[in-house]
Records
---
Amino acid sequence: MISTDALVIGAGPVGLFQVFQLGLLDIKAHVVDSLPYVGGQCIELYPDKPIYDIPGTPHCTGRELVASLLRQLTPFTPPFHLEQEVSVVEKQPDGRFHVETSRGTHFLAKTIFLASGVGAFQPKKLRVEGLDRFEGSQLLYRVGNTSDFAGKDVLVVGGDDTALGWAMRLATLDADQPKSVTLLHRRDVFQADADMVLMIEALREGGALQFKVGQVTAYEESGGQLTAALVTDVDGNIAPLPADTLLVMQGLSPKLGPVAGWGLDMERKQVKVNTATFATSIPGIFAVGDINTYPGKKKLILSGFHESALAAFGAAEIVFPGKETLLQYTTTSPRLHKLLGVAPDTPPA
Amino acid sequence: MISTDALVIGAGPVGLFQVFQLGLLDIKAHVVDSLPYVGGQCIELYPDKPIYDIPGTPHCTGRELVASLLRQLTPFTPPFHLEQEVSVVEKQPDGRFHVETSRGTHFLAKTIFLASGVGAFQPKKLRVEGLDRFEGSQLLYRVGNTSDFAGKDVLVVGGDDTALGWAMRLATLDADQPKSVTLLHRRDVFQADADMVLMIEALREGGALQFKVGQVTAYEESGGQLTAALVTDVDGNIAPLPADTLLVMQGLSPKLGPVAGWGLDMERKQVKVNTATFATSIPGIFAVGDINTYPGKKKLILSGFHESALAAFGAAEIVFPGKETLLQYTTTSPRLHKLLGVAPDTPPA
């Protein structure tokens, strides 16, 4: 059980800046995110696309913004608990929240910051009736160990860099090789890097992997085991493709997730907050960034930054009860210079 | 008379970002500021001091922040009307505002953005009873033309870079020289660049200027003309110093100025706004940054950035009546790319 002043849910740009703002008030935080890396949408949806409206940054990519925010919060770098979603939130008699994640991490948190944007990013599921009962055994959305595929007829479903990358990796393992690797995509055009496509082409010509165009529309089983995917091609013809493991990589999409069941006041799937502290209807839970709503709300990263600053002051009233937290400036405050680990007038190392 | 969609009062960081946010909505702006340069407090109070809490910018000086914001608003660079304060604001029958400045510039503006921070920076006055009636003739707080000092006994009052710089300049003119230049400061230590102090020292040794320690506490006049300053030294002795022109440069301090008389709802010298659009109590006038107040307000630059974004949307309803203004993203919107002058996925030149 991890005790913490603050638990930030979501490691996107606003969650990261929330940690920085909490740090300036000497509030320690842990961070949970569903993705295996920090950065949220910026990394998942537009790592290399330009952003022009971060104030004082005329141009940066999503990846660069995340790198800058991580550099900025260095003095307060929190423990990150990645690849897990919050599954349980229960208020305790002492006012703290017991939080449990999908990986079994437990927290006792004085305050919670919902910075989960459009929601937790989840793999897009293969929608074939009945198939979901194989999830975790013969139907996988992520790779744990490559040795899990040893001796298997593997069908990799997808057409982006991630799908092609894993098809290539599995087709070229040194040990514990699969029996066969087939890449299946609904079109014969990939949404992937040109070099990656060339490498897949070379592997295919060399016979190390197969490529099929089509979609999984049904499956065959025998003795409770998945034995083949039934693939419908562009002409509507259906043919079985022997497979005992499906690795489905059709990208990620955000899901609001269990937040909807916490009893928070919501409006159109957004969490209602007051604009003084960005507190939700449950005292101790704050919501910042794209997940919240209030009159005038615009889903802008720069608004999330402002919200996180005011939310930190809201949390200070709970973390340091009865103590007034005054606004100090990073330019002049010796206390903040100490927290930031900088000498006055000296840039950080 | 200048017609404009928006008039931004204050060219500090928030005023500059306000112009950028208006630009993204295709709203053209003019900017007025009391200082002779843009940047406001960032330049006037901490040009070389570090700021650590601009989101995504781990460290910058006031000067660097202003430079970045100017670079960011390049596609929308507005006409700047500097060294003048707004003196008159009158609502016209057609809903626009007639605005006049201390330099006689006239505007007809559909919307006004108060981004004037702690107020217009004004020269600190020399507090000597009766002396103010010479202001503009024999008592000056700024230099218009150096030739105004030709043949005069000039007393420069102050001890910072600006005061020393002007004393040096007047003592070394090629033409229209003053009869004499005396620098007066209350202490014999200057708050100025070491090189500047050395140059003043050299001029003093060469006899090109005099230096006295003391304060002007009274004056002498003859026939309605100022003839001498009465200077009290550190020991309390009073002596006349012949002078027919006083150039007083004791630094600047902010004054809220005539805003107080516009009829805006105020609270403790701050302008009350709603947090949906940062509109004031007068429709068409918005207030952003340190000048405004609302529940939870913190005087942070990053809050001003958020406020200016929402205020721009508030103004769009007035500038483009009956047209809904949708939020678009600089990362993806072809319309914004066109306004910003960038091709998709390409950084600006």
Note: Chain A touches chain B through 56 residues (CB under 8 Å).
---
Amino acid sequence: MSFTTLAAFETALRDLPMPDEAAMASACVRQASLTKPSGSLGRLEEIAIFLAGWQGRERPRLEKARAVIFAGNHGVAAQGVSAFPANVTAQMVANFAAGGAAINALSAVAGLDLHIVPLDLDRPTGDFTQVPAMSEEECLAALSAGAAMVEPGLDLFVPGEMGIGNTSAAAALCARALGGCAVDWTGPGTGLSAAGITRKIEVIDAALTRHAGAPATPFETLRHLGGREIAAMAGAILQARRLNIPVMLDGFVCCAAIAPLAAAVPSLTDHCLAGHCSAEPGHERLLARLGLTPLLRLDMRLGEGSGAAVAVQIVHAALAAHDRMATFAQAGVSSDA
Amino acid sequence: MSFTTLAAFETALRDLPMPDEAAMASACVRQASLTKPSGSLGRLEEIAIFLAGWQGRERPRLEKARAVIFAGNHGVAAQGVSAFPANVTAQMVANFAAGGAAINALSAVAGLDLHIVPLDLDRPTGDFTQVPAMSEEECLAALSAGAAMVEPGLDLFVPGEMGIGNTSAAAALCARALGGCAVDWTGPGTGLSAAGITRKIEVIDAALTRHAGAPATPFETLRHLGGREIAAMAGAILQARRLNIPVMLDGFVCCAAIAPLAAAVPSLTDHCLAGHCSAEPGHERLLARLGLTPLLRLDMRLGEGSGAAVAVQIVHAALAAHDRMATFAQAGVSSDA
């Protein structure tokens, strides 16, 4: 079930399973029977029905929910596109392992089982202003490393990332897959100055020009302009779809990872909830292009799966109401007139 | 510490304590030291600093968080302003006691200690199209019943309500306290048809006309146009302020309960977070008038404290990150360039 060949990846993209319509219908009937005005729990009702469809059960559960943070280093970081030096990627991986990062605290609160997957941190991707970020073998290895972290029986999967320089890769992927120039998709990332953003836009436009002749396929876009942690998220999200496991998406980089796939196959995101809308300005536009309405808008812009982890708490609320509420008949409450 | 006299209520309104600035400053310093780009947790950072101020500690906690659902019946319900019959108030109180309502499930997920306070359900308030909803004694008793549910040492207080007909009282309170006509503040409540909303607007405008000559004080507005559960929420929120206990506000009716107080004393809501923006259309306008930005927009419109309970989960996330994250120095992570 991994992506050791390009053919395996492309076959997976063409053959996407759909949700269980009968389970969704049963969940709808249950929602209408619960002691509340019809529709009054809003998106909590939608979430319960969505998870019923992907989990294939009237009362979905959230017992085995996994977050995986993929980390990678980017050759383009040498161009000065981040407010932080590239060695922070490895330092933060150590911080994740020691339990000191935001995602550690937020995963614990959300009941997420957290895994950290560093991907060849001592071997950054190629500087995509000069060369493709990855060889075919490297890109397939990253896609497979992502897929390997998703296994049957998970109730929800949360992909996250860490990689100094990766909002530059994300902006390049969006421009290449969805159109527009670098300026349409570039923001401050971890906190660049206005001058830094101007420089970042120049770097990304140079990369887009450099690879304008590359084949416009999901794989080649990921390979030329992505990064290992980005390809790993794409592989994990696609593998989750093959296993009918719902996904909670995080911020700009996470969503950009699937932009090349979704541009080719719009139904790719059907098993995905958008956890939040990041303060990184390209994310709002990207969510709109993916047809996703974020659950949260809390001005977060950290990555690490942090926004998605907070949004998983909303799923807990949705499923608790769906599972534990009494029906009108059970409670002896009159329904509406 | 209750409101057995009008003078006690008015004194409390004039003498509002403020947050602990030193604790907020310490919490700000701590946030800046944690292993994340400065400001990248957005509103989670603001929430931690806000709670630090009201709890008076650099690292606020959420161990003793209480939700109280006040229930009352409304004489105006006889005018056909709700999609549900008035006996549903008592039926839902039984459902709360049995653990079958949405707020039971949502409180459990949010770690809230849930209390239910029915207020003279067999004795509806006066029909405010004809008479004041409450006598002075009744209104003071309701304010005091609310205050009695807030005790020193709580880390957070969540007021909620149940009362068939109470969105009519809420709309009348908003129009009276903040200006406008019934049409500006009236919506479908639990699910009225368009014709039902037209009727509801007529009823509310009749009440506003009937009491146009009443003294324009917070107390007299609550007394003429409110209800017992509404006055109880106002009393509880004011009592929380006297005890420096932060409050998570719920939906339209909860916020309308303090509209008369906040119109007279705008700093009244300084200790309040807005949990969510309800699908009830008047709520968006009301939050703007109160100067509050909601944490969540999930199209909920149930009352019961349900939206606030979901928002309490966001507070858990905020405090977990604030308390448990490593600092740059502890983790050996380079800060920004």
Note: Chain A touches chain B through 63 residues (CB under 8 Å).
